[in-house]
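DATA SHEET
Item: assembly model
Revision: 1
Owner: S.N.
Input lines:
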Amino acid sequence: MIILSIDTSCDETSAAVTDKTKVISNIIWSQASQHADFGGVMPSLAQRLHKERIDWVVDRALSTAHCSLSTDIDAIAVTVGPGLAISLEVGISKAKELAQKYNDILPALKSGVSLQRRMTYQRSIHLRSKLRSVLECCYKPIIPVNHIEAHLLSPLASPSTDHRPPTTFPALGLVVSGGNTQLILIEKIGKYKILAQTVDDALGEALDKAARLLGLGYPGGAILEKIARVGNPDAYTLPSPLIDDKIKNRFSYSGLKTAMYRLIEKEKPLTKEKIYNLAASFQEVAFDHILNVLSYQINHQPLAISHFLLGGGVASNNLLRSKLRKLLRPYEITLHVPYTKKLCGDNAAMIGVCAYLKSRNAKNLNAKLKSIDREPRMKIA
Amino acid sequence: MYNSHMRIIKENPNIIKLAVDALKQGGLVIFPSETTYGIAADATNPMAIKKLNNYKKRPIGKPYSVAVSNIKMAEEYVSLNNTARNIYKEFLPGPVTVVSYGKHKLTKGVESETGTLGIRISSYALVCQIVKDLRVPITATSANASYMKRPYKISDILGNISDKQKGLVDLIIDAGELPHNEPSTVIDTTLDDPVALRQGEIKFTDKNEVLSRSEESTQNIAKELFQKYESYLGKRPIIFALIGEMGTGKTQFTKGLGKVLGIKEEIVSPTFNLVNTYTLSPVRYTLNHIDAWRIQGPKELETLGFLKTIEDKNMVIAIEWADRVMSEIKKQREHALIIWVKIKYGKKENERLISWGTL
């Protein structure tokens, strides 16, 4: 099943072609630019809404995959939420436009229309209205996809068709990005339970903001990781968030952010070494908070879990990966991360893979075109 | 069509002059750097940039970052704020690209559509010397065509481009296979520009100030403030314009508004999404939670549907970093009740001073 997928949930404009779980092409607009070769620059809102971006990425995704929309693509998948409403709209309307333009039945119907010209007037009117109603409901199937679910299942994407990571459900999943931090129990694909989520900032957002407090610009999560590698994580003591919680079912970064602000004020003027140490100390506490909640949830999990999926922009952070691996090892839980870091940040390939995994129970393929709409605050469970 | 002029020369001390001459004549030069092989064009020469666009095959409207030789040279082309200065001091020369507002002195298309420009100072001596001798910035884009593999050796480049593209290149400086370093990290400093910050404009009377000792008490203050003005709702929308540094509790304040409105959903930071809308069902009031920090100018606020939300008389709007869009909010004085709320750090860890006024 070959899917053209589109994601325009927030900052990125992306399109991809996937075959089942295999990624054939995965085009992200910002990566085309010098700036974003490196990830990091915030596009202006106007740029995010540029129509030319969506056309360009879709064309590029198809041409890189050597696919023709009319003959090779079986379905179109698109992110419907959560995200910024006006951004989501760009992707959804593009998907609808393509679905209607390139439906399989249209060419056949067109020849039918020329045939009907030769028919009697009466019959032709009857046929025409019938044809019109058929036309209105035929299009390439569109599969609406939840952006968080796509991040969650992104470790299941593969570079080749026969290379899907072996996972069994129930499994645990963690989505950590600029907009979300959710620990999710995956009972099976399509059935989820949120075990913990953030009550204020997302993890990626907290890292970006810490970088900004350190005078590293915004978003600075990526550079924070880089310089934290040379810093000493024990140089400063920052308070672990929500350490007193009896039931650990939430994440919070507001208190840590404040503590960081105070600490930086105290340490000013900042030297290079101080910045490195502050970055390392903040990252350490921010990640340990995740591990803290996670280990509670594993210990209180009645179901037998042997797989853990990690997705989202912060999933590319090597320190977080190694910390998770270390935590999961004694429980004999295998950590799965996306096979390339390009699948961590926002991208359309994960949308295509998610659409395929979900559409195997078919009913998603029957979504009516009109019923597909943006859901800016869409929930996964 | 293969260009017989394209020269591939091993890196040597005499090559700097060759490269500078080629660039002066509007040529394209492929050079080694501390990250990947880059392709240079004189960033002040429109013909050279046109040639580069053809080489890179990139979509319209994609900016190039440029390499300069030192911070002084950078200042000729961009305005540096404090954040930028700090980063130059700490990380340059090195694999970091710093984005600032440009001074529009370079060829059109080098700066971004919004007038920002990414600047690098290479720690690779050869690159620095070329820029120094040329005396104008060169483009510092990687030498692959858009979407091709990162070039760490010359064959990575030549194997992936057409003869036509090869024909556009005048000189290749071959330094063998480069260490596989990551591309440079890009840092945007324009969001820290204090252009919109005119906090002095809002005056608060002394009496409208309370001390918050915890997140809960900040939420409670929001609740009480809302109840004080609740009777306006239905006649006019209420805007809570929140001003306060990072970590002071603007989102906490909004959580309090959510609670008093009866919104069950968790109210989280809108920084990433820019705006979060919470609707009560059955619909009575709607809470629009906006983060203006990433909003660049009044037009963007409009794009987010700000003016349209004001039309809804049952709307409660909380805008974080309201000082960045102060004039836009003030324009709504006739149509909405505007409550300016300022949150400042207090003396003790959890203390905040919260003051307000309906200007």
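QC remark: The radius of gyration of chain B is 27 Å.
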